[in-house]
Structures are given as C-alpha cells and as structure tokens.
Automatic annotation (TrEMBL):
Belongs to the CbbQ/NirQ/NorQ/GpvN family. The lineage of its organism: Bacteria, Bacillati, Cyanobacteriota, Cyanophyceae, Oscillatoriophycideae. SMART domains: AAA. One of its GO terms (biological process) is gas vesicle organization. One of its GO terms (molecular function) is ATP binding. One of its GO terms (cellular component) is cytoplasm. Residues 31-200 form the AAA+ ATPase domain. This is Gas vesicle protein GvpN. The keyword Hydrolase applies. PANTHER family: MAGNESIUM-CHELATASE SUBUNIT CHLD, MOXR FAMILY PROTEIN. Keywords: ATP-binding, Cytoplasm, Gas vesicle, Hydrolase, Nucleotide-binding.
Amino acid sequence: MTTVLRASPRGFVNTPQVAQTAARALRYLQSGFSVHLRGPAGTGKTTLALHLADLLERPMMLIFGDSELKSGDLIGRSAGYTRKKVVDNFIHNVVKVEDELRHNWVDSRLTLACKEGFTLVYDEFNRSRPEVNNVLLSALEEKLLVLPPHNGQKSEYVRVHPNFRAIFTSNPEEYSGVHDTQDALMDRLVTINMPEPDGVTQLEILMQKTGIDRTQGLKIVQLVRDFRERTMALLAANGNGHLQASNLSSRNAVSLLHFSSTLRSCITIAKVCREHAIPVDVANEEFRDIFADVVLSRSNLNLVTARKILAEILATEKEPSQPQPENGKDTAFIPYEEEVLAYIKQSQGVRVSEIQAALNINRVEAIDALRSLIKKGMLMQRDDRLYIAQKQLQASPPTATPDSSS
Ligand SMILES: Nc1ncnc2c1ncn2[C@@H]1O[C@H](COP(=O)(O)OP(=O)(O)OP(=O)(O)O)[C@@H](O)[C@H]1O
Ligand SMILES: [Mg+2]
C-alpha cells in the first residue's frame, strides 16, 4: 500500500544559516526545478528535504535509496492478475465462452507523485544502483514517465503533473555503500552542498531536541568540535597516518576534513546527560565516560591516539564563548590565515606540519586557517599537500615572501 504523507518535521530549527540554505532551495523548486541536497552525514539533509516538502504544501511521497531497490519499486509493477470468464448460453444449443486474463498494474510512489503533482523526497538516492534511477531522467527533463509494456500493450507514457517536484539527498561518493552519481541525472538537478551546521545552528538544534540549557549545550558543542578539529588536524598532517590505509589513503583530504558532522554526537551526549541528570562538566566521571563513548566510536584515528587527544581536551576545557552565526559568508576573522596563504604561495605543495614549523603555530591554528582558505576556494589539497588554487594563481600578482622570522 502506498502512503501519502503530509510532511511536517516536528521542531524544525530555523537559524540564519538554515534559513539561507532553505531559501536557496525553495527558489529553485518554485521555478519548477528539482533540487539535490548533498553533504556529509548529519548535516541536516533529510530534515531540510522534509521541511522544503512542507513549504511546497503538496502531499509528499518518501522513498529511501537502497541497493536492493528496483525500477519497479519506483514506477510500479504488475501485481497478480484478474481472470474474467464469461459463459454465454443464451441460445440453449450455443455455448460461448470468453476467458480473459489481465495483469493488474499497481502504481508506485514515483508514478503516483508524477500523476498527481505530489512532492517526491528521494532520500539517499545514490544508495540505489544508478540504472534504477534512469526512469527519473525523462520525468525530470521531458516531463514524461515511461511505464514498461504490460498486458501485451506497448509502453505507456504518463504526463508529469506541473506541480510535481523532486527533492533528492545524497552522501558524498567516498562513503561506503553509495554509488557514483549519474552525470545525466545530476545535470537535471540543482545541487546544493549542505554546509556543516554552524555553532549557532548546532546549539539551537541541541536545545530544541534535547531540552538542555544554553550553557551546557554550548559546552558540549565546543568540546565535540575541539575533539573533531584536533583529530582532523592530525589526520591531515599525517596523510593517512593511523587510518586503515586501504580505506582512506586514496580519499581526498578535503573530504576527509568534512567527513561527517558533529551534530549527531552533540545530540546524543546532550540527550543522555539531560535524561540522566548528569552535569556537563569535564570533572564529572560519568560525563567523561559518555563523552568518550560517543566521540571515540566516531573517530577515524586509532584508539590510543584518539584517547590521548580526548584526555588533553578534557584537561583543558576552555570557557565557552558564544558562537557567531556564519550565515554562509566567511566574515569571521581566522588567525594566521594571511600568513598561511603567503607561505603556501612561496612554496607550492606543502604539508601541514611544514606550515606549523615555518610559522611556529600549532596544528589547530594551522587547520583552522587551511579550512577557511579551502572554503574560500583559495587553496586546494591533493593527497596530503596543499596548493594554491589555480584561479588564485592566475588572478594574483607574485607575492612578497612572508617574513617567517616572527
Ligand atoms: N534544522 C533542523 N532542525 C531540527 N533538527 C535538525 C535540523 N537539522 C538537523 N536536525 C537534526 O540533526 C540530526 C541529523 O539530521 P539529518 O538526519 O537530517 O541529517 P542528514 O544530513 O540527513 O544525515 P544522514 O546523511 O546521516 O542521513 C537529526 O536528529 C535531525 O533531527
Ligand atoms: Mg538523512
């Protein structure tokens, strides 16, 4: 049976960052395009997709990508058959028998959404095999859905209702269990790269979902971020240092830096602390245990190194400072950004450890600066080395050698 949903994600949190992404996506949907929200795990893709479907005010059909999914699950299939037998004996010495066998066709979610003009949310669509998603190509471009021949008839064409919209979500292709996205499908969608939820968004979601107070929520967000940044800094510096080399050595380090959001870890810690009245305090044994259980399992470092970083973080808890909304613009001042850029400009293809040594800064400071420069498109990363982005090289005149004596 197919269920039509009225999408209305409960407790949706709308911060400036979320509102900006939602407004971008909604603009495309209102102009008749389908959108694709792409990003690492836990960045709020599914939640935003449901929110957008709600804003469109049409009934919603929800499909989850899966490698077992078949095209029949999308468009429909023959389900059993109906047999009709008519025995006509109106004239006593004439018996006429008509025996008809018809396959029953059952529409599936995509077909129904196309016919009725519903909103289709196809969550994690790149977990389905690419060929299964082929049926979407003509539906999105020619606004025709092609149903396979059945009952001995030719293919049937369904005209796509003008209100039909599709919202896709996907995880990066480096994730296990996901397939490469098809160029032809990507070409028919507007893709929005979901940003990592900023500090304000994480905190608001945390408070909304778990009921934790602002001060405690803030501490959790900062501790988890601290841990993430230090482990990522180590990974970036060592290339694939302590990772399972076969899995991660070929991964582009940029994607490594954005491997998954810290939001789910924060929610888990906050929920458990709140429900079991455990104070968010690094001196509290139980809190330390919860924190370790949640963050260590999500770290790609080996356990010994990860534990060491964890101990350092818990020993040097900083005073929480109010996070600033990022609002999609990079206005915040990042220390050492200019120095790092100048250093890389004069020595192409450097490692993070070389930057640290040359500028006498620690790993967190170096990675913060690098992240910000990568985000602004000024740098690119190949293997474990950083280079000035090509367009930057073309645009800027040769720079003065930075003073590395400071
Ligand atoms: N704007 C928001 N308002 C309220 N809760 C949110 C919001 N964004 C994300 N969340 C919460 O954060 C968590 C992660 O969000 P979500 O499941 O949407 O992420 P995702 O990007 O789809 O992750 P995955 O790739 O693993 O499926 C969920 O518990 C969700 O409820
Ligand atoms: Mg999701």
